[in-house]
Automatic annotation (TrEMBL):
The lineage of its organism: Eukaryota, Viridiplantae, Streptophyta, Embryophyta, Tracheophyta. Gene3D superfamilies: Phosphorylase Kinase, domain 1, Transferase(Phosphotransferase) domain 1. Keywords: ATP-binding, Disulfide bond, Glycoprotein, Kinase, Membrane, Nucleotide-binding, Serine/threonine-protein kinase, Signal, Transferase, Transmembrane, Transmembrane helix. This is non-specific serine/threonine protein kinase. GO terms for cellular component: plasma membrane. Residues 65-337 form the Protein kinase domain. The chain crosses the membrane at residues 6-23. Residues 341-368 are annotated as: Disordered. Residues 346-361 have a biased composition (Low complexity). GO terms for biological process: immune response; signal transduction.
Length: 368
């Protein structure tokens, strides 16, 4: 009897051990498969916290990245128009020469997916497959702001002063969200007219926020880097000031031609302000529709934003308040880069030396 019991117990124990062994092997196998899939396809889909589209879907949506669907190309790579499930989309295809790795890309996607504001372009999903890394955004049918404000014919027909002011205020609110109201503090670094997109109702939406770029370019970026030595929220404020002057005047900061002087747009605006003639800055196509108090307020705020020392520039929360009320504003000091073009362009060798330090990549976020 005792022998029979002992044999039964031994059989049961052997069965338990055998089942445990096979379970352990199965779990190890699943982990190995998971690691292999992760190495081949990137991180698991659920980590990205937004839809992950298959490459074949994106290829079909863009007609195999047809040149006819190409909207443009920036520091991130080419951008294509497409249609996905009946919705128009914009696909940013990461350039393979950008140097951005899979983990860096994934971190950027997770970051951007957390940012939701009516004045930011909405991220709809992404595609990570093989060497392809793409971001899929909502499509902005009216393109970028620069195509309107620097084109008097097009801009004059579609954008009167109330819409200009609406765009300025919308950009300010979007930038305030990035700097202060989101869980992460985001520094754009490259705010300019071509990075502000317009929807069907001409509402402004800031694009290219949160993307790590290996090449940092553009007039505003070069100016703020030269002034501050590194990027900060006050660098974005400076860029916003330049952008407002461009929206009001319909002229680019760089390349401004004036028969009486050779200042940049900032210098030209300061000169008119200091001489009591700020309204001469207004684009002629806006003169019939503008509200003088709003225009003067915008010029005043922009000159405060382009002050030489970052501590003299307002925060974006202050900018939003100033644009939305009639409070008394501090008088601006002589702004940065109030200089003759000859001084700016003198010494091409020194300019070549300084240009290399703009080719950097910086992580620009703080957890609140």
């Amino acid at each position: 009897m005792a022998v029979a019991i002992a044999v039964s117990v031994a059989i049961v124990l052997s069965g338990v051990l055998l089942v445990g062994y096979f379970l352990h092997r199965s779990r190890r196998k699943l982990k190995e498969i998971g690691k292999t899939n992760q190495n081949n396809e990137g991180e698991p889909k659920e980590d990205l916290e937004l839809p992950l589209f298959d490459l074949t879907i994106v290829i079909g949506a863009t007609n195999n990245f047809s040149s006819n669907n190409k909207l443009g190309e920036g520091g991130f790579g080419p951008v294509y128009r497409g249609t996905l499930h009946g919705q128009e989309i914009a696909v940013k295809r990461l350039s393979r020469s950008s140097g951005q790795g899979l983990n860096e890309f994934k971190n950027e996607v997770i970051l951007i997916a957390k940012l939701q504001h009516r004045n930011l372009v909405k991220l709809l999903g992404c595609c990570v497959q093989g060497e392809e890394k793409m971001l899929i955004y909502e499509y902005m049918p009216n393109g970028s702001l620069d195509s309107f404000i620097f084109d008097q014919v097009r801009g004059g027909l579609l954008l009167d002063w109330p819409k200009h002011f609406h765009i300025i205020c919308g950009i300010a609110r979007g930038l305030l969200y990035l700097h202060q109201d989101s869980r992460l503090r985001i520094i754009h670094r490259d705010l300019k007219a071509s990075n502000v997109l317009l929807d069907n109702e001409m509402n402004p939406k800031i694009s290219d926020f949160g993307l790590a770029r290996t090449l940092i370019g553009g007039d505003q970026t070069a100016v703020t880097w030269h002034l501050d030595g590194l990027f900060s929220v006050k660098s974005d404020v400076f860029s916003f000031g330049i952008l407002v002057l461009e929206v009001i005047s319909g002229r680019k900061n760089k390349g401004l031609y004036h028969p009486n002087h050779s200042h940049s747009l900032i210098g030209h605006a300061w000169r008119l302000w200091n001489q009591g003639r700020p309204l001469e800055l207004i684009d002629t196509c806006l003169e019939s529709s503008c509200t003088l108090l709003e225009v003067l307020c915008c010029i005043h705020v922009s000159l405060l934003c382009v002050q030489h020392h970052p501590e003299d520039r307002p925060s974006m929360s202050s900018v939003v308040i100033m644009l939305g009320s009639e409070i008394a504003l501090a008088q601006p000091k002589q702004p940065s880069f109030f200089m003759e073009k000859e001084s700016h362009e003198a010494g091409s060798s020194s300019g070549n030396q300084s240009s290399s330090r703009n080719e950097i990549s910086i992580t620009l976020l703080e957890v609140r």
